[in-house]
From TrEMBL:
Residues 1-39 are annotated as: Disordered. Residues 9-20 have a biased composition (Basic and acidic residues). This is Protein LKAAEAR1. It comes from Batillaria attramentaria. Pfam families: LKAAEAR.
């Protein structure tokens, strides 16, 4: 296979500068162009070279845009960069503050829920008709969740009182009569 291919001869629609430019395959004279429907004429003219005055206007516009861009680059200094850095710092700070507020709201909601739950459990325990049931409910349904070790939490006096309540089979110590 050869390293270099020979150039393609003939008109390939590039205008001699190597860039591809689409063009119409069929050339239509101006009289036939006037006879075409507006939509067909528009399609045909989209691939034709624009008139000289339009090309000049396009070149002037591109020149103005380049000059405008160049002048903007000259006036642009380090001040906008400093402003941009300050805006980013400010946005970061605002984000951190919003996150802290959200964490605080969640903490307050959690504490409110735990307090309401403890109040309801205390009410359930107080409404038990028999003291033994109240003690059992209090042991099985703690008001606040404990993260401590689940070891023996009763002191000597509490243990004696609890055992005497559990051994009372007649219910003499635990019956509540009003």
């Amino acid at each position: 296979m050869p390293d270099k291919l020979p150039p393609i001869k003939g008109d390939d629609g590039d205008g001699g500068d190597g860039k591809f430019r689409p063009s119409n395959r069929k050339k239509i004279n101006p009289n036939e162009l006037k006879k075409l429907a507006p939509q067909q004429r528009s399609r045909y003219m989209a691939y034709e070279e624009p008139p000289k005055h339009v090309q000049e206007a396009q070149q002037q516009t591109m020149k103005r845009l380049r000059e405008l861009k160049k002048s903007d680059m000259m006036y642009q200094t380090t001040a906008p960069r400093d402003d941009e850095i300050e805006r980013e710092k400010h946005a970061t700070l605002i984000g951190q503050l919003k996150a802290a507020e959200a964490r605080n709201r969640l903490r307050i909601m959690r504490l409110r829920y735990q307090a309401n739950k403890a109040q309801e459990i205390g009410h359930l325990i107080a409404c038990q008709p028999v003291a033994l049931k109240a003690v059992r409910l209090q042991a099985l349904l703690p008001a606040y969740p404990s993260n401590k070790d689940k070891g023996d939490q009763l002191n000597k006096l509490d243990r004696i009182r609890t055992e005497s309540l559990l051994e009372d089979s007649a219910g003499l110590l635990t019956n509540r009569t009003y």
